[in-house]
């Protein structure tokens, strides 16, 4: 095995040492990352390289001044010379971090979960001129489409053209005047000739030639009609009857460049029942969703709402650590979310409203206020994450009520997280609901 094979093998091992993305989301240190940079621990693996024995640096026969002579004793080893012995290591293996931006994180998560969410651009940020593909009937002369003008004129030429010699010969049938020949030409032969032309042509024929053919049968037996193609090959095209209505002017297609904007409202229950383990499950679910959406959209804005019986907006850094001793009224958070979203028209912004808590809520608040508010707030996706370690408590009915009322609407996801191993499944359920809603709307 050569050095190249060794290098490839070590790189493969190093890649395997990087924490599995699911393991990182479920158990890793999410706090070590920033909103724009995800840091995943990597076990250090030293790549192979050439090393030289320091005791042989001089080589045979190349001693320097002061080199000991044969039989001369040598002093004690210098520090660092030779192999050193020491106590067994007591510290764990060193770690570095594999850093990825949110876009790479989103790609990795898509691959791992089998998702393919393609966000829509909504807000028009620029209009640019594309190819000259739009055509109108008026415009500057410099944009006149000569090719289109020629095609339309030629089409008319071919539609109007007829074998004038054939008609002139027909006018020489004994006893047939302009009226009868016009009726024969238009109704039987489908020749696009006007009565005025026939009348003028008949007047040009000398009187002694108007009896050349005794009948239609004799005329047809002796005179053949030439096709348009035959006449063009024989005579060419002398003129094309252009008309004003044939003119077409080229204009550039106006292309709207749309920016993919998203606003995310993260809502978290901070009431007294939300103890540390529940808060951690909330963080493990909502944080990767933030990274994912940041990576998917051109412009992502986030708002964080904490609530007990009342709701207030907080900075991201404080969002997951707040705890209060108050009761719970989830509708207060949705009321504040509706106010914030007034600054982000749904026609221009993709909207996500993610809420998380232990499903405990004040009596009738879910049915009377939360569900109507979720129905009134237009959003790509509403999601509720229930965090109840060990299973749902008797009075934790919020998730069930939302699921029962809105679970079939197509843009509402309800998930339950009882332990870290449930987090990735919850994220998949949320994002796959959005994936389906996106597909349905396209």
From TrEMBL:
Compositional bias per record (Gly residues), positions renumbered to this chain: 58-68
Q: Where is the composition biased (Acidic residues)?
A: 80-91
Locations of Pro residues compositional bias?
A: 70-79
Region of interest (Disordered), ranges = 53-95
Checking PANTHER family in the record gives: UPF0229 PROTEIN YEAH (PTHR30510)
Descriptive protein name: Uncharacterized protein
Q: Which organism is it from?
A: Halohasta litchfieldiae
